[in-house]
Amino acid sequence: MLEGDSLIETFWNICLLHDISSRDQLLREAVRVVQTRRMLELQGVAHATVLEPEILFRWMKDYIGERELGHFPGDRELFYRLYQAGKDMDLLDYAMQTLQQDRVTGGIIVHSGIMERFKMMCERNHYRTLLITETEKYLRGLVETQVYKHSFAITLLTESYVIAKLLKTYFDPYPNVQVIQGSIYQPLPLTEKFDAILSIPNFGLKMDEGDDATIRDSEGVAVNHLLPLLQDGGRISVTFPARMMFQSGSIAKWRGQTNESFPIQSVHMLPDGLFRPYTSVKTYQIEFGKSPTDQVLLGQLQLQKMSLAIEREIAIHAETFAQLDNWRIDVLLDEDQDTLRSFQQAPVPKVKLRDIADIFRGKSILKQDLKAGNIKVLNISNLGDGEVSLEQLETIDEEERKVKRYEILPGDLVMACRGTVNKLAIFPESESMVIASANIIVIRFKSSILSGFAKIFLESPVGTTLIQSFQRGTTVMNLNPSDVAEIEIPLLSKEEQIVRLNRYVEEKERFKAAVRNATARWEQVKNKLYSELY
User: Kind and range of the H or E element at 197?
Assistant: First the structure.
């Protein structure tokens, strides 16, 4: 008899040979097979009994029908083969592997460590009624933790009709599990309230919530619809991408309002790459509660074998947390935060870049666009050792007026916004028009700040930490102009800026001269030694 993965592979292969290839089609036919087996068992016919294709097909038609699962896309011979291959499959494992192989819809399959931590949190707080939203994302967690075998009353929510049918079929023997169909991006017509809710909303979608909506981002919309379903004293554990932690505007306003009504209990950074290949952005696990709290736990999780364990954790007072204008716990958890804290607490006035500079990202340029032309393009490769090299700039052939908005002017501070290394430089005088590529952010300061002084600060340990805290990516840097605009720098007088800038430039020139002299001396000594060898 075929086992586990072999059964699933065989079932897939039979389906694919008969043009049953979409995610929903593959799931639907597996449900049809399992329901047929269940019906045979109920009728007293052992599923192991070898039934003739004609009899088996008639059983399926009579007892399963087509109203709920639709027309079977084949004949009696095809159903007989599918039944023999699929009757002993684990339907939940099959669903998880089918969704993982789906290259079209490409939905997230959440690491089982998140489900394990959610289960432990529920046990610790003696929660009983649980709601798991968009359950298809948590199939691995359901398979590996088997949380449904514990003493919880679990409601599984999914927007998909086919996945709802599959879950109802699988969990039919479990009276403590109910399955409902609905969307977390719309108000849920549920009268029941829950002790705990687990959710990972879709990242980065804009929802149509009407003119008076406080937020239109899918993550915030979903949480707004789920929070009213919490029991007093309950919690919702939700996964957020980095931008929800620090982006300004409507998201910042939403953070403040949500924390006021449903105080945050904990925030944990998730390990880099936990959701690859679905997304590589930084992610965080946040618990909101329907009860006040004295302390907020902030931490970083790491992978230990197949579990998520605490790598570092601190507690701060809830009132202190409420006063933060963002939830960038990276900064609070930074091992070198003494330096950062001294900057934040220093009496020197500070100002956000958005208030003193125009900030924009460069133009997206395809490889085929690069050709001999009159417009030069600055890319990351042209930045090195804190300076811009104008000698090997690539070019495009375009009218100046069409790319004027991307032009870099002398004195602009240019910053790499993608890649693995943070690079900053002041743009020098240029005889030709130069524009920034999409890998470059341009910061054009107004009169109050010198770009050279800003560069010194941003490449300092404090500045580097601040920049890293606004990264949306994990191992590969991904900075957004609107996020960079939130970085604070010290607002010194022009005279003080000039003093620090001149000192920096003088010392750097002295260093470069020393390196040149040492290099020249080494070349002389080396060549003399070589000449004495023969």
Answer: strand 194-199
